[in-house]
Amino acid sequence: MFSLREGETGILGRLRAPNLRDESPIDRGYRYLRRAFDIDRCYQATLSRTPDFMSRTEMPEEAFSSAIILDLLMASRLSSRIKSRITEYLGEYHEHGVFSYFMDTSLLPRDVDVTGLALSVLIKLGVVPMDVAHSAASKVLQNVNDTGVIHVYLPPRGEREGRYRIDPVPCANALYLAYLLGREGEARPTEEYLIDSLSPENAARPSAYYYYLTPDGLLYWASRLLEFEAFRRRYAHLIEDVLRARIGSSDVPLELAYRVIAANRLRIDDASEREALRAAQNADGSWPASPMYKLGRSDVYVGSEALVTAFALRALDDQ
Fold first, then answer.
1. β-strand pairing of 57-58 with 293-294
2. What is the spatial distance between Cα 307 and Cα 134, in angstroms, rounded to a whole number?
3. From CA 209, how far away is CA 202, in angstroms rounded?
4. Residue 211 has what pLDDT?
């Protein structure tokens, strides 16, 4: 689809108008992601003091948003140019396979959450040497507390030394990396912690999460592990129970997308929530920004329209 240049009207405008009218919600979503893409910084999240993101500010350059979007839409209709640029961006960003949240590593130590996700994306794309991948995975798998559960920040931790941060979502991403490399046996205490965190009584507690916010977020990240047959065989029934208990629990577009994606992975038809998600799309093709996580125990939320749009597209374009 072409874009009109300044001053172009008449037949060009009339040719373009029917195309826009005929676009499906999914086409509009992909068009939004093309417009939101920055060739230098790819996709970036924003900060807000309120969950509605009515007032927001940019934050320092980060890699996590781009890694999330590429993981979600790797096999989608997202532009191959965008996928290639994100792959290059992530390849430039790590140090021997290990990632930090911010490009400026003085702001936060390197961590298992971004490393677990971004490195797994690069492994699946075949663009990182396997010795580098295994070396980085060893750092993640050895980064455990006294009970053997993987914690968030990797050494050197600076002012965070001795302050273990445990959150089930980073554990899920670290565990995904372990499964991808056939090393899940080295992370059994982390797997047990993750499964225990999914229980209704634990998942519903606000104190269960340090960075992430809702049981639906945990449900989504844990459901990624269903890709691995050994995990699916042991835990699909548990994740299905969690999903069925959560269906209809909220109408927040991001949470709807989390649940629909989990349902797709379990081959469950969540038609009502799929339709609710479709109806929540903005006129410009995006879905409204929602908090994906927050900065520690602060009330500073992180999110963007691009992130929620990518989740919505994965939910609706992956039947």
1. unpaired
2. 29
3. 10
4. 81
**Rounded distance between C-alpha atoms, residue 69 and residue 160, angstroms:** 29
- What value does the CA radius of gyration of the chain take, rounded to a whole number of Å? 20
CA 309, CA 278: separation in Å to the nearest integer?
Answer: 11
Over 50: is that where the pLDDT of 305 sits? yes
SS3 258: helix
- pLDDT band at residue 157 under the 50/70/90 scheme: confident
Rounded CA-CA distance 241/200 in Å is: 9
Beta pairing partners, 169: none
Enter the pTM of the model: 0.91
Residue pLDDT, tens place only, 189-233: 999 999 999 987 766 555 667 788 889 999 999 999 999 999 999
- 3 state DSSP class of 153: strand
Both tokens assigned to 29 = 């979503």
50-62 per-position pLDDT tens digit: 999 999 999 999 9
Which distant-in-sequence residues (6+ apart) come within 8 Å of 132 by Cβ? 96, 97
Closest C-alpha among 226, 293, 223 to residue 254: 293
